[in-house]
Design brief:
mainly alpha, 45 residues
Length: 45
């Protein structure tokens, strides 16, 4: 089975430096969205 034919859960863990976590959390709070939403949008670019 090719990787493009697999089913994906949509979940994966990624480690970032604490300052990146803080920056994204502040951006999410100021935008009124979840940290997950901010990370998803940035990863999709």
């Amino acid at each position: 089975m090719t990787i493009s034919a697999r089913n994906f859960s949509g979940k994966f863990m990624v480690r970032v430096p604490p300052e990146v976590h803080r920056y994204l959390a502040v951006e999410a709070a100021e935008s009124g969205v979840s940290l997950n939403r901010i990370a998803s949008v940035k990863l999709a670019r």
